[in-house]
Amino acid sequence: MDAYALDLSDGQRVLEIGTGTGYNAALLCHRLGAANVVSIDIDLTLVDQAREHLAELGYATLLEVGDGADGVPGAAPYDAILATAAVDHIPHAWIEQLRPGGIILTDLRGGFSGAMVRLRKIDGARSRAAATITSQPSCRCAGRRATRCARA
Ligand SMILES: C[S@@+](CC[C@H](N)C(=O)[O-])C[C@H]1O[C@@H](n2cnc3c(N)ncnc32)[C@H](O)[C@@H]1O
């Protein structure tokens, strides 16, 4: 799972972009506790279904409906932002909502291909690419802005 690349520690807060089934959110809840996990998806139906799936597991985490490019400012700051929907740039909202030292893990798409990138915010205003850790083929995604899906 990509979330392993986040190298999470107890008590950290994570924002997941792209709730989908809620599977990845459930893994994050198991690791960090539901209170430390926030997830957003652009698809209301998926969020409703994910909420049911998570409730069956006893997790009452915060799920939002909206464009993940805006993050979830009301629950920030986060120690990590994990995007399971691909982006063609890093939304500034993610940087603003990330703690200094925090990690963004996302599929960053190029013209014909994409790669998973792990970015560390190195101070309050800037971030830099720390490493490109994997690359993977593209697939189609339901969202408006995210044109390809990253596997959870
Ligand atoms: C690969 S799936 C995520 C799988 C999910 N993490 C899971 O564990 O099942 C990508 C998800 O990103 C969502 N998505 C696409 N564009 C989005 C956007 N702009 N904002 C929020 N979610 C988006 C899609 O609706 C889809 O559910």
In words, what does this structure look like?
The structure is a single chain. The C terminus is likely disordered. A hairpin with a 5-residue loop joins strand 6 and strand 7. The protein has a 7-stranded mixed β-sheet with strand order 3-2-1-4-5-6-7. The chain has a single domain, classed as Rossmann fold. It is built from 3 helices and 7 strands. The structure holds S-adenosylmethionine (SAM). The site of S-adenosylmethionine has 25 residues, from helix 1 and strand 2.
Instruction: Give average pLDDT, whole number.
Output: 85
Give the count of helical stretches: 3
Major sheet: arrangement of strands: 3-2-1-4-5-6-7
| Ends apart, CA distance between termini | 6 Å
CATH class bucket: Alpha Beta
* Helix/strand class: alpha/beta
Number of domains as seen in the coordinates: 1
Main β sheet profile: 7 strands, mixed
Low-confidence stretches: 131-152
Assign the CATH superfamily.
Vaccinia Virus protein VP39
The outline comes out as globular
CATH arch. level architecture: 3-Layer(aba) Sandwich
Bound molecules: S-adenosylmethionine
Along the chain, the helix and strand elements come as: EHEHEEHEEE
Q: How many strand segments?
A: 7
The Cα radius of gyration reads 14 Å
Helix amount, in percent?
Answer: 10-25%
CATH topology descriptor? Rossmann fold
The percentage of residues in β strands lies in 25-35%
Brief characterization of the structure:
Helix content is 19%, strand content 32%. The chain is an alpha/beta fold and 152 residues long. The chain has a single domain (2-136), classed as Rossmann fold (3-Layer(aba) Sandwich), CATH 3.40.50.150.
